[in-house]
Amino acid sequence: MPFSLPDLPSSVSLRRLLPNASFVGCGDVIVNDATDDSRNVSGDAVFAAICGTKFDGRQFAVDAVKRGCAAILTDRPLPNISAPQCVVRNVRADYARISNAVCGTPTSRLKIVGVTGTNGKTTTTWMLRSILNGSNRPCGLLGTIEYHDGRVAAHASLTTPDAGNVFRWFRRMVENDCRHAAIELSSHALSQDRVAGTPLAAAIITNVTQDHFDYHTDFETYLAAKSQILNYVSPEGIVAINIDDPGSSRLVDLAAVAGRQVVTFSIERDADVRAELIEETALGSRFRLCVSRTGDAGTGTTAGGDVEVSIALPGRHNVSNSLGAAGAAMHMGVTLDEIRRGFEQLTCVPGRLEPISCGQPFSIFVDYAHTDDALRRVIHSLQSVTSGRVLCVFGAGGDRDGTKRPLLGEAASHADFAIVTSDNPRTEEPQGIIEGLVSGFPPGFANFHLESDRERAIEFALSQAQPGDCVLIAGKGHETVQIVGEDRLPFDDRVVVRRLLDGQRHVSVSHQLMARASE
Predict the structure, then answer these.
(1) Which of 117, 142, 212, 431 has a Cα-to-Cα distance from 159 of 20 to 30 A?
(2) Band of the pLDDT at 506, cuts 50, 70, 90?
C-alpha cells in the first residue's frame, strides 16, 4: 500500500518544532516553506540566514524581507529587520529540521542508509540500491552522480544536496513508493548539518584518508567531520565500518562509546562481514561473502552464512565496497541470495573503473580516483590483472588542497608510466598544478610525460599503449565538463577516448587503403 504524506505545503509552527528557539517581534511563526536563498523566498517561507564559507546569509536578510518572507531564521537578533525573527544556536541544523517538516517529514517513512568515506561512497550506494531494488525494496538515491526518486533521475550538483533539496528528494521518493534511500554523506555535508534530524537505519564508513584539507585543515578535523555520521544512526540501526582502513578503524571504538551497534567488514582479517577472494580479473571479482552477524540481539540481527558472489567491478577496493553494502542490506532483512542477485544486476557504475572497449588491443578504464589512496589502489588493482603495463593519465583540481598534489604524484609513480595533465584547473595555471604533482615523484622516477592539454594527454597515452597494456584515465570519472577559470567547458573522458579511438581506426583504414593502392 503506498505511503501517504500531507499535501504540500505543510504548515509548521517554529515554536513547536524548535522549542529552544527565541523569537523577536512575535510569539511564534507558522511557515509552509524554507529557503537559504533570498531570491527564492515567498510569503509563507522562513529565510535561513546561514553564515557560510563565502557569504554571510545575514547580509541578505533585508532582501529576503523585501521579497516578502514570513520570518528570518538567525543565530542572533538582526537590527533593522521588520519581519519576525526566530533565533537559534545552529541555523544550519534547524534549517534542515524545518525543511524536513515542511516536506511532511518524509524521513519517518524511509529506511535511510548513509554512506561516508573518502572513497567508495558512490559505488557503495549504487551497489546497495541494486540489492534493495532487486529484492523488491524500492530505493531512491542521492549521490555524486545522480539524484533518483525511484522513477526519475537528475544530474547531481553536489555529492550531498543542500538541506532544502535533500528533503524535497526524500519526499519525492516516498511519493514514488520508495521504502528505502541510499545517500552519500560528504564531510562537508556532515560538518554543515545538511541532514540534521535524519534517522539512519544504517551507516557505512568505507575509509578515511586525506582529502578536502582546504576545508577541514587537517586529518583530525576531517576525521571528526566523518564521525558525525554516528550521531544520525537510530538506536536500532547499525554502523558498518571497514576495519582494513586505518582511518575508519579509529571510529569503531567511538561508535561503541556512542552506543551504536557496530558491524565490521574486511578482506584482510576476521570481521562480521568478510570476503574470501576466489578470482580477480579486469572484468570484476568473484569471492565468497561470509557473514557472521549484522547486529546484536534485539537490533535486527540477521542469521549469518556465506554465498559465492560475482561483481562486474574490478579491484579489491570494490570488493570492500560490496561488503559494506551487504552488511547494511542484511541488517534490513535482505537474504544472502538476494544480495548475490543484486550484485549480478549491477554491471557498471559510471566513471568508476568504467571500461571503454572499441576493439582496441589493450584495455582502457576511466575512474574518478582523485585522492592518493584511491589512485594507488586502482593502479595496483589493474596491475594485478594486466599482463602488460599500466599507463596512468592523471591531474589535480585547481583552487583546492595543494598538499595532496605531491601525494597524488607519488601514487601515480606506482604506474608503469604516468602522463601528468590538467583536471579542472579552475583559476590556477595548469603548469603550477603539474609542478606540484611532479614534486611527489620519487628520486630517479623518469617514466612520465607532461601534457597540460587533457585531450592531448589522453591521445598520447593511447598512442603509447601496446597490446596487453592498460590505460587508466583518472580523476574525472563521470564528469562531463572541464572547469577552466570560471568556464565549464564540455569534456568527458569517455567521449574523448571513443572519439580518439574512432579517429585512430579511420587512420588505420586509410593507411591500409593507401598501401593497397601502391601495390
Answers:
(1) 431
(2) very low
